[in-house]
């Protein structure tokens, strides 16, 4: 286990071991980060393949070329894999596996993927990267597997300080290299517009629903020393997967709405976000953390030096093969009802918790209206269906209809690419919804290649939407 705070080099050291391995896999928390590692490895002359739910890429090196990279024994190197955590290959044997952000085992929605990878990855050597709070739980879990564990602790590479004063609420104290953290898309655009009005700086923006490609483009604008975009306004989406030239992190708030109620940020969340200031690989300057509100700054000042409570439970979720067998015992019930019954009667030890299945249940209710086989139904429960967005959900159900009929799906019959791709707030939201639908099509194309075979057109749509989203983002000042 490589454990330590943000910007301590823990993942860097694990990746150096992976780079030297004969065979290996990197398990990423984000598609964006999986792409970054894929590019980094190939740029370092280490053949690497990419596997995410929506994308498959081979190594750019020609295995039959005399220039193909070799190891110290002059043997051709087999490609390693950079994969999103949900797509981790549990059947293939690797010399080295790297599982990043292992503390995500406690995530209420996705925690099961880290637990599954930890207990199921087939490797001689597994490197876990993340917070020290995960160590006690991992040790308990590995008592069952009989694995030996070595814990390597890291310290932050450059200094991080908490300011003793808050920042002016009128944004006149904003300076180059600042990152303002907000927790809603609306607030991000409002703050960015006010900063651009009050100062000479332009603002790049990053938030969770933004496609990874556009997050990278916004990050590039902020990181480019020749760009006018000297300030970043972002959500906690910057906590993982982006290298950013942030000198100072400023919290707009220390509470976050979870869809139902507003919750105070945890110590881990404050430390993870605040730790993005003063990135060692991009700037040697010390990082600074502050807030606009004095009370918020007091919370931050108490949280930053505090060691969070150890993680007590790891997320688990039902396997679709188990659900399939379970469903045969109740042939008269809908699969959505079977899943609810299974969740209600499942028994597990106090080292685990059942991940939130509310999203699964909502998707199950929608797709149960179509004549699907059990296998089709269960596969779709794992699909990246945006059930909260009516536009994306409506398109997803068109895809489901094609699956139920076994009919080829042309993307132009499901998505109107030319509708409302304007540089307005509504146009941007619509483009983001269509982009999620395009990614769903690509995900489905790997499972139903004869139905979702309009790949060339889909990739053209994808590029067009990313261009429209980027244009919309550059026009964000008009959204307020």
TrEMBL record:
InterPro entries: DEXQc_SUV3 (IPR055206), Helicase_C-like (IPR001650), P-loop_NTPase (IPR027417), RNA-DNA_Helicase (IPR050699), SUV3_C (IPR022192), Suv3_DEXQc (IPR044774). One of its GO terms (molecular function) is hydrolase activity. One of its GO terms (biological process) is mitochondrial RNA 3'-end processing. Keywords: ATP-binding, Helicase, Hydrolase, Mitochondrion, Nucleotide-binding, Transit peptide. It is an enzyme of class 3 (hydrolase). GO terms for cellular component: mitochondrial degradosome. It comes from the Eukaryota. Its EC number is 3.6.4.13. It catalyses: ATP + H2O = ADP + phosphate + H(+). It is found in: Mitochondrion. Residues 166-315 form the Helicase C-terminal domain. This is RNA helicase.
């Amino acid at each position: 286990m490589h454990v330590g705070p943000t910007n301590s080099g823990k993942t860097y050291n694990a990746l150096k071991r992976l780079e030297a391995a004969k065979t290996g896999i990197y398990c990423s928390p984000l598609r964006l980060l999986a792409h970054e590692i894929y590019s980094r490895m190939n740029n370092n002359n280490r053949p690497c393949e990419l596997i995410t739910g929506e994308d498959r890429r081979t190594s750019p090196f020609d295995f039959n070329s005399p220039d193909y990279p070799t190891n110290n024994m002059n043997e051709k190197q087999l490609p390693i894999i950079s994969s999103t955590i949900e797509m981790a290959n549990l059947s293939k044997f690797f010399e080295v596996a790297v599982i990043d952000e292992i503390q995500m085992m406690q995530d209420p929605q996705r925690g099961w993927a880290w637990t599954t990878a930890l207990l199921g990855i087939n490797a001689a050597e597994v490197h876990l990267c993340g917070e020290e709070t995960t160590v006690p739980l991992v040790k308990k879990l590995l008592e069952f597997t009989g694995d030996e564990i070595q814990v390597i602790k890291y310290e932050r590479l450059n200094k991080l300080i908490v300011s003793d004063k808050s920042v002016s609420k009128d944004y006149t104290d904003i300076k180059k290299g600042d990152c303002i953290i907000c927790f809603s898309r609306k607030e991000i655009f409002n703050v960015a517009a006010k900063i651009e009005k009050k100062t000479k700086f332009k603002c790049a923006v990053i938030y969770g629903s933004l496609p990874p490609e556009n997050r990278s483009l916004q990050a590039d604008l902020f990181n480019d020393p020749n760009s006018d975009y000297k300030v970043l306004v972002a959500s906690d989406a910057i906590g993982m997967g982006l290298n950013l030239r942030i000198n100072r992190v400023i919290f707009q708030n220390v509470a976050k709405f979870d869809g139902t109620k507003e919750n105070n940020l945890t110590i881990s969340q404050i430390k993870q976000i605040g730790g993005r200031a003063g990135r060692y690989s991009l700037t040697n300057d010390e990082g600074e953390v502050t807030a606009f509100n004095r009370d918020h700054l007091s919370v931050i000042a108490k949280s930053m030096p505090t060691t969070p409570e150890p993680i007590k439970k790891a997320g688990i979720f039902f396997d679709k093969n188990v659900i399939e067998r379970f469903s045969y015992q109740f042939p008269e019930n809908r699969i959505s009802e079977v899943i609810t019954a299974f969740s209600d009667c499942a028994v597990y030890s106090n080292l685990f918790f059942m991940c939130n299945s509310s999203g699964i249940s909502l998707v199950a209710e929608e797709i149960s209206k179509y004549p699907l086989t059990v296998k089709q139904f269960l596969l779709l429960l794992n699909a990246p269906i945006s059930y909260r967005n009516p536009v994306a959900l409506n398109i997803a159900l068109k895809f489901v209809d094609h699956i139920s009929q076994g009919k080829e799906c042309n993307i132009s019959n499901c998505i109107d690419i030319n509708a409302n791709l304007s540089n307005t707030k509504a146009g941007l939201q619509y483009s983001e919804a269509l982009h999620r639908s395009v990614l769903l099509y690509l995900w489905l194309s790997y499972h139903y290649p004869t139905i979702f075979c309009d790949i060339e057109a889909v990739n053209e749509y994808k590029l067009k939407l990313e261009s429209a989203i980027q244009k919309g983002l550059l026009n964000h000042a008009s959204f307020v």
